[in-house]
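Hey team,

Filing this mostly as a record. A colleague (T.K.) asked me to run one chain through the structure pipeline before their review meeting, and I want the input and output archived in the tracker in case anyone asks later how it was produced. No errors, nothing strange. Just documentation.

Input sequence:
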Amino acid sequence: MDFKKQVGESLKKARKDKGLTMLQLAELMGKDRVTITRYESGKQNLSIETITEICKALEVLPELILKNSEKP
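Output structure:
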């Protein structure tokens, strides 16, 4: 799995752990649901700023998302 997909999977897990739907996260961020789908599927390149924005909405540290994305 490539890094973008791993980050997307980590974001998806964090969102689900918070009990949020993609639509709810999108609304918190002022984005549409399709954008969240692209983030989580690894189809959208994410800047550090975007990762930080997502993590702020999810109330998790960016390090958690990136650490969960590292290969063992």
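Quick notes for T.K.: The CA atoms of residues 18 and 58 lie 7 Å apart. The mean pLDDT is 90.
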